[in-house]
Design goal:
Length: 77
């Protein structure tokens, strides 16, 4: 029996269309967590608790969301 190559490729790789989106959540979480820990470390170093933790947490959220939205709009095109 001869199979069509297009039907074989589409059934063997069902996540082909979704693969570019799979790492976006990890990237978003990583940017938030990394900047949060930098803020905690700087608060311990300069004894300014909780101000730098809050600043770096919000900076991580804004940075992560910016890259998330930028990546999604680029992948949609």
């Amino acid at each position: 029996m001869i199979e069509d190559k297009n039907s074989k490729n589409s059934s063997s790789n069902p996540f082909k269309d979704y693969a570019p989106y799979l790492g976006l959540g990890v990237q978003l979480a990583a940017s938030i967590v990394i900047l949060l820990f930098i803020g905690i470390w700087l608060d311990g170093k300069f004894d300014s608790s909780p101000y730098l933790t809050l600043v770096f947490s919000f900076l991580g959220i804004f940075t992560g969301m910016y890259h998330f939205i930028k990546s999604v709009t680029r992948l949609d095109k």
